[in-house]
Every structure is written in C-alpha cells, then in structure tokens.
Amino acid sequence: MSDHTSRPDVIVECTLLERELRYRSTRVRTPDGVTIAVQDWGGGPAKRDVLFIHGFSQSHLCWLKQVSGTMSEAFRIVTYDNRGHGMSEKPVDPAHYRDPKRWADEVDAVITGCGLHRPIVVVWSYAGRIALDYLTHYGDDGISGLVMVCATSSAGPGTAGPAAPLMRAMAARELAPSVEASVQFGRACFAKPPSAAEMELFLACAAVTPSGVREALIGRPAEYAQTLQTIRVPTLVVHGDEDRVLLPATGEHTAQMVRHAKLLVYEGVGHTPFWEASDRFNADVTAFIESTT
Asked: Which structural domain range is residue 11 located in?
C-alpha cells in the first residue's frame, strides 16, 4: 500500500519556456518506505491519464516541453522524480536501487496513489528498465499503452553508444571527475547543442543525484527479453538516429521484441527527442495516445 499525501497547488515560474507552469505537488510513499515527489499537471476526469518517467540522473523537469504545451491541455499528465533523484528521497543503501521489485513497486505506488486509470506510460532512457521492471512484476493490465523513448531494453552488444561509459564516470566518488563526466554526458545527450539555459537546466538536475545513487543504478542487469515478448498493450518506440548514449539498434531491438510495436526514428536527433524535436514528439505521442482509445 502507498501513503498518498496531497499538498496545495504550487505555482512554478519557468523563464526557460517563458510561461508559467502550474502543478499539484504530491508525495507518495513506496512499500519500502521511500518518499517520492510527484507532480500532477491537471486535466479533467474525462481526460486520458499519462505518466512520464525520466531517465538516469535527471528529474521530472526534463518533460517541461510536454507539460507546458498542448499535451497538458489534452491529457492529465503526471510526472515524478525517481528515487534518488530530484526532490524524491535518496536512500544511501544500494539495495534500494538494485532490486527490480522496488522499482516496480515505486511505479505502482505512483499509479495507485494518484488514482491513475490505466495510464499511458512514457519512459526515457534508464526508465526503460523501470517500466520493464513494473511489467515484469505487475503485468500490463494496469496500463493502456507504453512509449519507449531512447529507452533501455537490453544490455546486449550493439546497444551502448560511445557516451554510455560516461554514466559510470559520473558515479566517481571524487567531485572533479564526476562533474567533468556529468558535463560531457549532458552535451552528448543532444545531437545539436541546446541553448545555454537549456543545458544549465539539464546539468543542474543531474547534479542533484548523488554519486552513490548513480553507482547503484548502473550496477544492476538489464535483460528483459521475456518481459518484452509478453507485452500486449500498444507500444510506440521513438529513437534518435544520432543517439550517442543508446544506439538506434536499441530501439530496433525493442520494436522487434514487442508484438505490434511501432518504431519512429527521428533523423538528426540525439538522446532527447522530446526536447530536440518536441513539436514532432508531442504530435506523435498525442496521435499514439488517441489511437489507443
């Protein structure tokens, strides 16, 4: 059971996108006692529920171009900070990060605590593992669709890009090499450099995740062949053809393993299609969600 506590609306002003954002701040407690920070971006009861899960050493802020655009008007969007990230609790015991069941329970706690009805789940990068952990332990009856965005589905050969080793370097216990790797990794996520303000946002979010958490995250296996083959819900796979973190072969692998999955490859885009090509991404995901109705 999850402990769900709501708080009053929090108004967030974001000069990056030159608009005011409004969300309801919520806290959810997982079965193993970790407090998760959740953001409910609104939407009426008749709107489809969509849950966004961020990647390695990031936060819910990576989805700003989704929660502040037309998608937030069309759907009820919920985001959250993974354990060890953003404003969520950061246990120091590596066991909190290496057990797939704990990640599965975390997703379930958010879905249950927020009262989401069979949401579409959109995951980026490392969150591919998190979604597949959830599906391994809970199955897909509780969701109505899956969107894998440059997402991990295997640690097999031909999937890791040249920038992938930087994630291990980011876990260094000395500050200088950890910071250097974090900056390099942030730059490697984009095929074309974002604005200085955008890069600052990504790097600031990365800095919130402790090195010990990063080390625990990369220290667990990522083989989900059996789970991928049992997914029955509609699945969309989005991948940039210039992704230097997870090669496009990763997206191809996911699409081949999941029955009836649709693969979209974005030309000239790196590891962040939702940011680098946000208009196209939002339109593609919106069309996918509407097709699952």
From this structure: 3-291
